[in-house]
Amino acid sequence: MQLSESRETPPFAGRALWIAAGVYVLARMVLHVFTAYGVFRDEFYYLDCARHLAFGYVDQPPLSIWILRVWTLVFGDSLISIRIPPTLAHAATLLLVGRMTWRFGGGPITQVAAAVLFTTAPFIVALSSFYSMNAFDTLFWALVFYQLLRIVQEERPRDWLWLGVILGLGLLNKTSMLWLGFGLTMGMLLTPQRRWFMTPWPWTAAAIAFLLFSPYILWNMLNDWPTLEFMAGAREKLRDTPPWSLILDQVLMFNPLAVLVWLSGLIGFFLVRSVQSYRIFGYTFLSVLTILMLYGRARSYYLTPAFPPLFAFGAIWLQRRVSRSSKWVFPISAAVIVVFNLFFAPMGTPILPPAGYIAYSE
């Protein structure tokens, strides 16, 4: 199967993605206004941290706290106010998944389908339902993947500089960005892109990322490494996670019906010969998955930010295969998956009061 390398975007495609993002933001804000029943416990912690700014905190880097401080100074700390930043972050993620699909060669319908399928996945919806660093973590991973795709396709030195900035800010938001850094390194080593190591640009990107992350490292050094102590204690409290359990949880968190989409993306990176340069995304995902399996006690949601390229490429591969029988098979199937995503949304999103949630889950 030949995938188109054309990246010429029809006007409809751009408008459709922005409309989808706008509808998503509007729907989430309506839910927050009319159904949210209180501030989530973690949000109280973030709000308190925002009143005591520092270059680091025992359990996390400072970026999400700084963002919240600026936001609350301007817009206040009401429930609706603090729910806007994570909602906007996930709307931006929706746009990025759509743009990735476009750069992979997908048409307008495929772009919107891939973006909505990922963004409405039950656990992704849950991450955007309250303020936390996880809401921004998915966005930073998507930004890294999109910037990597630009580098693969265009190889402009300045894109490496932006990649370093994104990685550095992502690290300042959540240290799990280190896993993505490891995955990218392995992805380059295992593909012809290893030639990039013979240029100064990957090293420059790494230096920029380290420089941006250094305030948090310095804060830990000056305070006897409290984050490492916290991580060691947290790991002791976590149960062992068998490899099969980590994979099964991804199936459940992204809706079992969507397995065919993201799994097609992963397999497609290795089977579609016409786009071998994209295999770096497959190896990056498998490298992150491997390190989490070896860790042994990783929370299942640590892997969820690694899925945007799989949804983007998988949607294209599926659409082009099923369109041989009918052009409506793929959009109808995607719509069915989205409906089931919304059906499961109340299980991970605080839009029902406790009694209503218990009744719904039963």
In short:
It contains 17 helices and no strands. It is an all-alpha fold.
Question: What's the alpha carbon Rg, rounded to whole Å?
Answer: 20 Å
Residues in β-strands, percent: under 5%
Tally of strands = 0
Continuous helix count: 17
SSE order: HHHHHHHHHHHHHHHHH
Biggest sheet statistics: none
SS-based class: mainly alpha
Uncertain stretches: none
- Name the average pLDDT: 88
Binned, the helix content reads: over 70%
> What is the first-to-last residue Cα distance?
45 Å
Shape: globular
Describe what you observe in this structure.
With 362 residues, the chain is an all-alpha fold. Helices cover 71% and strands 0% of the residues. It is built from 17 helices and no strands. α1 packs antiparallel against α4 and α1 packs parallel to α5. The termini are far apart. The mean pLDDT is 88.
Please tag this protein with its features.
362 residues, mainly alpha, globular
Summarize the topology:
Blueprint: H1 11-34, H2 41-50, H3 63-75, H4 79-104, H5 108-119, H6 122-127, H7 133-154, H8 157-173, H9 177-189, H10 201-222, H11 226-237, H12 243-253, H13 259-271, H14 279-295, H15 308-322, H16 329-344, H17 354-361
